[in-house]
Amino acid sequence: MFYNSLIVAGAIALISILVVEIVRDLYHFLAHVWQPLYRLHGWHHRIFKPDLSVKSEEIYRQANWYNDLPESLVMLIFGVIFAQVVIINGIVSENYQWLAWTGCVYTITYSLGAIARGLGIPYADAITDVTHRQGEFQSLPGNLFVNRTYHWRHHFDDQDAYFCGTLTLVDRIMGTALSLKGKKIAVTGASGTLGEALMTQLHQKGAKVTALTSKPQELSIMVDNQPIPINTLTWAVGREEELKELFEKIDILIINHGINVHGDKSPGAIATSYQVNTFSGIKMMELFLETVQTNRQKATKEIWVNTSEAEVNPAFSPLYELSKRTMGDIVTLRRTNAPCVIRKLILGPFKSNLNPIGVMSAPWVAKQIVSLAQRDFRDIIVTINPITYIFFPIKEFTQTVYFKLFTK
What we know:
- By secondary structure, the chain is an alpha/beta fold.
- The chain has helices at 2-33, 35-45, 57-88, 102-119, 124-128, 148-156, 169-174, 193-204, 244-249, 267-289, 295-300, 318-334, 362-374, 386-406; strands at 184-188, 208-213, 220-223, 226-229, 231-234, 252-255, 302-306, 341-347, 379-382.
- The chain contains 14 helices and nine strands.
- The model has no long low-confidence stretch (mean pLDDT 95).
């Protein structure tokens, strides 16, 4: 009984912190859509330059009084309400009811920090305002927790996204953990079924799409039964270097091209499968990663690689499996120290020219990919096979640990 009560009380303490964090993020979101609140929150957005230095110490101090302190007081109110609900309903025993106030104590630290910054107390900002510190970004945008790189995007990538303050939970639920609005995105394999579907979804999210195809033709997509021309560049496997100038201007590169020789196992089929499915993508990836230099590029540039479900499951096409698995393993190795986010697209069988008997439709798959990317899934699994949802994360985790242990 003692352990059960303590476990419940501990869970309540953690939930109380989660509640006030959710309140903070919803308050932040509301401050961007409700003008009376934005009049206060707007002070916060007036402060920082792109290098996160402050434009004015006076404005910085005022912003803490007008935005940070009111926000923390709202968190505190809901923390008190939560604690009262827990205590009144006897959810925990009297000996542990004090733990229901954990969220309030947690919130008070934010209130005191805002007051200290508002008063201009020396070093208060360095100690209590860690997501707004200057300097080179040392890590990728946080996945589960907000860091400087993640929060920078709210200020200078898209103020209508990246609302979270500590945990990214609310952004992931709302689909605001990655903004595609205005992003310059290049898609290889653009003339294929999935490539066209991806470009359509990305265009509808406000992205500026460039189609990369091996076919000398201008591509278009259909939106509301109207053809929309897409900026199209023709390239060929083995000539990836010619895309370097384009990659300098691109925010997101989607490596989606591939070939399936099915049952062929001739030397030519082996060479072609690896050249198209593996080596071409690796070369593109490395060329793109060379363009990631500045803080802005570290925060906004990404690579999405379609490695397919063949990484962990048979595709009934041995060379397709072997070449895709190799590509997938290299991506896993490379993203242990990559300067930008690299996402994997782990896709089950969808109907296309490569797989005419696919079960899923390419438009549906593309919609799921974009939706999960906006929720900041780094491994995007879209399949009807439940085994993949179990085996792939295990494979990816163990392989990542192995690569980190035995590479420099």
